[in-house]
Specification:
With 196 residues, the protein is α/β, with parallel strands linked by helices. It has seven helices and five strands; from the N terminus they run H-H-H-E-E-E-H-E-H-H-E-H. A five-stranded mixed beta sheet has the order 3-2-1-4-5.
Length: 196
């Protein structure tokens, strides 16, 4: 039927009506109550709208030849803290570049696999609340970033990491270096000549 919207049981005209509600930022539940159309159908139309929007934005940035210069990496909890996801954001535009399930190095390597080869060549700084090894852990990821990339980390989480590494109270840990206190721990943080 030519008037049927693909993959649903509604007409193209009804789908355009739903799209207008969603374009005005109404929640799916609200659109369902107004129109009487099933939640799954509205959700499907919403997902299509999001895909179209992301694809048009990607093409727009590609046409401009845009490459990110400053990135932020953060993880967030899903399902009350039992499952995590990692998010990479472009700090200049405020847009999310990549999101993936998990927060370990193995999961984060998917970011480098999913991004084009030369896309990260102009990155000058990466901000994160974890220690830098998550990004600079594999030689493949280091090749993708420029040689002047600076890692900007949270001092508190870095101090915790170093304290855990040099904690002599853990069983089987040989005291090779003294425990580092957070007052004495200093890293290159925000100020760098490479970051403009």
């Amino acid at each position: 039927m030519p008037f049927k919207y693909p993959g649903t049981r509604i007409t193209r005209r009804a789908a355009l009506w739903v799209r207008e509600f969603l374009r005005d930022r109404l929640a799916i539940k609200s659109v369902q109550e107004i129109t009487g159309i099933h939640w799954d159908t509205i959700h499907r139309i919403h997902a299509e709208m999001m895909e179209e929007s992301l694809e048009s934005r990607r093409k727009e940035l590609e046409a401009k030849g845009y490459k990110p210069k400053r990135l932020a990496v953060d993880e967030f909890a899903i399902h009350k803290g039992h499952t995590y996801a990692t998010c990479v954001m472009d700090l200049d535009t405020g847009e999310v570049i990549w999101a993936g399930k998990g927060r370990s190095k193995e999961y984060f390597r998917h970011f480098f696999e999913d991004t084009p080869e030369d896309y990260l060549s102009e990155v000058s700084a990466v901000a994160m609340d974890r220690t830098p090894p998550i990004i600079f852990s594999s030689p493949k990821s280091c090749r993708r970033l420029s040689s002047s990339t600076t890692a900007i980390t949270c001092r508190l989480s870095t101090a915790r990491t170093f304290s855990a590494l040099y904690d002599c109270r853990k069983p089987g840990n040989i005291r090779r270096k003294p425990r580092i206190s957070s007052q004495r721990l200093r890293l290159r943080m925000i100020r760098s000549r490479n970051v403009s």
